[in-house]
Amino acid sequence: YSLKHTLKVQYQSIFYKPLRTKYLILKKYSNTIAASNYNSMLCDLANPLGRLFRTKETTIDFTIKNLNKYKIVKVPTISRMSKIKINSLNSVNPAYKILDGNIGYILPVKLKPGDFDSLKAILNYTKALIIDMRCRPAPENGVALFGNWLKRAKTPFCIITKMSVATPGMSLYRDTIKNGTDKPDCYHGRVVVIVDEHTFSSSEYLSMALASVPHAIVIGTTTGGADGNITFVPLPGGIKANFSGIGILNPDGTETQRVGVKIDRIVPQTVKGLIDGRDDQLEEAIKIIKDAK
Description:
Layout: H1 3-12, H2 19-30, H3 38-46, E1 59-66, E2 69-76, H4 89-92, E3 96-99, E4 103-106, H5 115-123, E5 128-132, H6 143-150, E6 155-163, E7 171-179, E8 190-195, H7 202-211, E9 217-220, E10 230-235, E11 239-244, E12 247-249, E13 265-266, H8 271-276, H9 280-291
Parallel strand pairs: 4-5, 5-8, 8-9, 9-13
Antiparallel strand pairs: 1-2, 3-4, 6-7, 6-12, 10-11
Helix pairs in contact: 1-3, 6-7
């Protein structure tokens, strides 16, 4: 589930606290979190190892709301260094499967080297594909593999800018990145890409490539806005700062850093959906496919 919306649930439904407390906590921690945009900051704040639940106490009391009934639950705390398992979409969904209606579903983060041939053999004749980019897949499960399967022509999906060494402060257009193939036997179904605040860095790069597939549609919420390679700068006191060392632009020249990838339809994960155990964004992706002519 989306951690940003889990944060909302914690204040509005499950871990009940007055809204004033919510904004005090956001105000307290927002300036201490390195994030490219508001969605990314909420994601980091709600991370199980983030600032929201840090304490020196051995237990925390939560007020649980369930169907307008409340009760106090005492929860033991754990060390930040402990290994914990989070029940997220990454743990409950397989790498790929066929949904009702002959719709293919792919969760790239769970793809292993060598999975792509079997994936294509199973999903190549589905009506449409849902590619769930609410994750961070391994680099090898990326741009070239999906592009060669899904695109019938080699087309651009991003522009890279780099800083001029000769003229400090000047940013230069350097490369237009393309992917795809000229082979006619590519996938012929529709593609729907789901993104949210967990889509960042290399995930955003792959999402941009997927968005360039003909007739693809991108749905979800604002992504991390942190695409581009990482440049590290050592500072006094043993501090290490990092930032994006190159610019990543859409093919039309618009920004992605701090902004996120382009989204065709904003689809939030609702609090009610979380309470009911539903994935609103996946449901909307399926609806888009079924409603398409």
